[in-house]
Amino acid sequence: MNKTKTLKFDTNWSYSPAPESIDYIELKDRYGLFIDGNFTSSKGGNYFDTINPANEEKLSEVSEANEKDVDKAVQAARQAYEKVWSKMKPSERGKYIFRIARIIQEQAREFAVIESLDGGKPIRESRDIDIPLAAAHFFYYAGWADKLDYAFPGRSTKSLGVAGQIIPWNFPLLMAAWKIAPALAAGNTVVLKPAETTPLTALKLAEVIREADVPPGVVNIITGGGETGKMLVKHPDVNKVAFTGSTEVGKFIMKTLAGSGKRYTLELGGKAANIIFEDAAINQAVEGIVDAIFFNQGHVCCAGSRLYVQESVAKEVISKLKDRMNTLVIGDPLDKNTDIGAINSRMQLEKICKYVDIGKKEGGSIYQPSCTLPEKGFWYVPTLFADVSQSHRIVQEEIFGPVLAIQTFRTVDEVISKANNTPYGLSGGVWTDKGSKLFKVTKEIRAGVIWANTFNKFDPGSPFGGYKESGIGREGGVEGLHSYVELV
Amino acid sequence: MSKRLGIRKTYKLYINGKFPRTESGRYYKWTDEKKTAIMNMCRGSRKDFRNAVVAARKAFEGWSSRTAYNRGQILYRIGEMLEGHRDQFIGELILQGLTKRAAEKEITQTIDRFIYYAGWADKYQQVFSRVNPVSMPYFNFTVPEATGVVAVCAPEESSLLGFVSVLVPVIAGGNTCVILASQSRPLCSISCAEILHSSDVPAGVVNILTGLRTELLEHFSSHMDVNSMIYCGENLQEIKMVEENAALNVKRAVIYKNEAWSKKTSQGPYYILETQEMKTTWHPVGV
Q1: A487: how many CB neighbours lie within 10 A of its CB?
Q2: % of chain B surpassing 70 pLDDT
Q3: For domain A30-268+467-487, is the CATH number 3.40.605.10?
Q4: How far apart are CA A283 and CA B202, in angstroms?
Q5: A206-265: per-residue pLDDT in tens?
Q6: Nearest-CA residue of chain B relative to A471?
Q7: Around Cβ B185, how many Cβ atoms within 10 Å?
Q8: Which of A47, A241, B91, B152 could form a disulfide bond with A61, CB atoms 3.0-4.6 angstroms apart?
Q9: pLDDT of A4
């Protein structure tokens, strides 16, 4: 058998380090809870560390909100809702939100560096994607504040009250923006809980909100772990719960809220199929596969973690993909050349390792490019699995890391049924240069966001959210507004 | 000559375009207030429900991919058929306790509701679809798609107009469903099956069960191949159970509490939207 040709990478040409400087970043040693316009210490007096996952060094410590703190935050939001925010002229409400967008833009570089420090994502991504998109979200929804009557034909809108919002650690500031911006535009006030491992940009956002002179209590940001989140969900004076995170926790929230009359939107897990047809532009598709699964270390709910390649091009695609993987730069998140940064936490790293072990045990063929990883911190090499089938756990379950499971297919109908053979339905990818095929497949994939000849693109005007067990409701666009109003 | 002996009707279930009796062989007695009629209604079972879900799932692909125009015509056809069966339904409504006048009003409104939604079948997509102005060279659009298989617990009080008001937006939007008829007023709900059956509604799109709400609600809300559950009623314990069970597979739980189905505000495209998913598609623009 002749050997497949591969590129040679044993060269002395390597990138010089190009780190983003951090000397102007000012982090406090300790952060309180942002309640009613002020940073206050937790009633319980407990703090927990937030570390840099790239070197395991402590960055700061933040308060752990207990039941009394949650109550205080919800009360502050309630007061602000009743007395100020719901009574304010919508156009004025909009202006505050515009201000937030502007200040984020002004401080974008600082936000980007903190995001990469706290979460481990490459600075290229936090600088070019997370932070600009967060600002864009506020800017987009700011404009809706005084135009709600145009959003839902035949109906007018009413705000819901206090929104309790819980966000994950994969896009910390961006998720805060996705939650806060539409809520405020629609006239609600919020209590937001950032993820335990990535609280810093949300706390910096609190400073921005204060700088924008947003009335106290309109936005409250409380830090803590799962327990704090639970208290927020259960608080009787919260009218709406918005959650982004795992399907498991999403189901728990649904159960908890059953019978309460509270509204909720959930953006949960995914296991997206990324489908490469033989008539696709193969080089672009390979680039798309990399974007789909290795973007943000694979810590993406909509990641294209199941790759389906048409049999006739499978060899070529996989070989090119392996070549491309060998060129990925893994390491210091603050280095502008870095493609793949640090895994967000030790816990997540362990989860990824566990799944890769399962993949091996179930008979998958593993491929990992050779590379040296930093000694300290949490890292994982981009990983492929071939020789897997629909029933393998690494094909069925969300890993939330840079691990791709590859299968091949022959016909369009076959791949559609394989793509839909999952309890999830968040996103999907299709690569073909044939328009009619593209529309057939994008229509038949049961998922909320479909990327055709592209992957992992986001925009404030573009609704995002899942079918089936990937969630309920949409964020972004007019749909995102719908999640924060009652139609009357 | 003696008076002719009337023909009584055996009310049965409607599953997969057929009229089977319940597999359980059980029944519950139904009588009108004056005790002039006594019926043995099918006491539908969990197994009947599961069979109905299988039928609904099988029918989903075909029904959701019909053209909107075609779905609209079928809904209109149902209206036509119902118009021709006014007297049958008036009779059943009276048996269920309405005055003649109220019964006439209800069947008229019910027919009109089919016609109303027949018109929406190819328009709600235009009202709720959007092309989104994203800040990148991409064409980006959002369209509503059917959620899938919907389990419906129909209103207990309004068993014709209420039943239809809940049912039509579901199928107008391309979903398929299993619907539990009012336990205390089941006649005209299950008779609707005869109308649907003769209106080109494909088998499995609508499946109708009769039976005990307390017995079936748990199964309706906990089935893992049901995408959405619509509950009509005010019983807080039932609502809680439905919402809890919905968590098992992240069902969309839709609760219609204290709806006045005879009001004009109880119809509209937002009822269709309750069982729709928004799908957003991206494609690069360039050469």
Answers
A1: 14
A2: 100
A3: yes
A4: 45
A5: 999 999 999 999 999 999 999 999 999 999 999 999 999 999 999 999 999 999 999 999
A6: B250
A7: 25
A8: A47
A9: 58
What amino acid is encoded at B167 in this protein?
A: L
CATH class of A273-452: alpha beta
Strands of A359-448, DSSP E: 365-367, 383-386, 403-409, 427-431
- Please compute, for residue B167, the number of CA atoms within 13 A of its CA located in the half-sphere on the CB side: 31
Structure tokens at A61: 């410590």
Q: Which of B136, B243, B252 sits opposite A259 (nearest CB)?
A: B243
Alpha-carbon distance values, A364 to A310, A361, A369, A477 (Å): 19, 7, 16, 40
The answer, for A431 touching chain B at a CB cutoff of 8 Å, is no
Query: Is B223:B53 a contact under the CB 8 Å cutoff?
Result: yes
> Which residues in chain A are closer than 8 Å to B133, comparing Cβ atoms?
461
Beta pairing, strands B276-284 & A57-63:
unpaired
To test the contact with chain B by mutation, choose from A462, A470, A479, A482 the residue with the greatest count of B C-beta atoms within 10 A, namely A462
Class of domain B27-260+268-284 (CATH, top level): alpha beta
Q: For residue B252, what is the nearest residue in chain A, using CA coordinates?
A: A472
Rg of chain A taking only CA atoms, in angstroms: 23
DSSP letters for A287-353: HHHHHHHHGGGG--TT---EEEEEHHHHHHHHHHHHHHHHH--BS-TTBTT-SB---S-HHHHHHHH
- Positive or negative: CA dihedral B80, B84, B85, B87: positive
Model confidence pLDDT, tens digit, residues A382-427: 999 999 999 999 999 999 999 999 999 999 999 999 999 999 999 9
As a whole number of angstroms, the distance between CA B130 and CA A95 comes to 26
Evaluate if residue A12 carries a pLDDT over 90: no
Say what the ipTM of the complex is. Answer: 0.96
Token couple for B83 = 């118009």
Q: Does A459 touch chain B (CB under 8 A)?
A: yes
Which of B136, B247, B284 shows the shortest C-beta gap to A453? B284
Tokens of B120: 């929406």
B77-127 tens-digit pLDDT: 999 999 999 999 999 999 999 999 999 999 999 999 999 999 999 999 999
Residue A298 vs residues A45, A291, A349, A402: alpha-carbon distances, Å: 35, 9, 12, 4
Q: What confidence score (pLDDT) does residue B285 get?
A: 97
Question: What residues are paired with B30 via a beta bridge?
Answer: B39
How far, in Å, CA of A402 to CA of A392, rounded?
Answer: 17
From the CA of A109, how many Å to the nearest CA of chain B?
20
Report CB contact under 8 Å: A470, B283. Answer: no
Interchain contact, B132 vs A471, CB within 8 Å: no
Cβ distance of B270 and A487 shorter than 8 Å: yes
Could you tell me if B243 lies within 8 Å of chain A, comparing CB atoms? yes
Q: Is A469 on the interface with B (CB under 8 A)?
A: yes
Q: Which helix (H) or strand (E) holds A295?
A: none
Tell me if residue A479 falls in helix, strand or coil.
helix
Closest Cβ–Cβ partner in A154, A423, A461 for B249: A423
Sketch the domain layout of chain B as residue ranges.
27-260+268-284
Task: Give how far the C-alpha of residue A250 lies from the chain's centroid of Cα atoms, to the nearest Å.
Answer: 15
The shortest CB-CB distance from B236 to any of A259, A266, A452 is to A259
Report pLDDT for A13.
75
Q: Where are the alpha helices (DSSP H) in A397-434?
A: 412-419
